[in-house]
Amino acid sequence: MTTKNTRTLIGYQRVSTNAQDAQLQADALAEAGCSRIFEDKASGKNADRAGLLAALDYMREGDTLTVWKLDRLGRSTKDVLTIAEDLHARGIALRILTGTLAGSYSPKGEGKFFFTMMVAFAELERDMIVERTRAGLDAAKAQGRTGGRPSVMDADKLVAARARKAKGESVTAIAKALKVSRATLYRALADTE
Hints:
alpha/beta, 5 strands, SSR_resolvase, Resolvase_HTH_dom, DNA binding, Resolvase/invertase-type recombinase catalytic domain-containing protein
């Protein structure tokens, strides 16, 4: 007796940093009917993504890898095309939920050409974002501005911290009095010594 091979939707979601939230992707993948979702918190240009590797290893012929948007699969044209071709060779479909390529990938004829172009555009977009960010940071630096959060240790707090430390107060007591963390106080004192 032969059993019919049914498609199982397997989701893959990725955010670039731990500070980003993948909930939007998770909701879309769950709504699409994914029975299992694998996740990475790593840059798309990073080829060593444990979640993606686990998803690729988990899937069997007849399954469908589902991603929220093409750029979640990867940023490098070569890597995305390699993944897509490998999936096709194994009899695994690729489904993209949103964006220009929403739908299923077909590695034949016009579908392959269009897919290749869209992957190349996604890589170009990423490169342009990196370039603009770098140019903006360089321009700000040239104007004497630096990025990041403002320092909680201003000059007055630093003078007070040094004076209290000279009197023998503990770092814990000084940090509490100045309403800063001990790590911040240690850093500020180390930077001035």
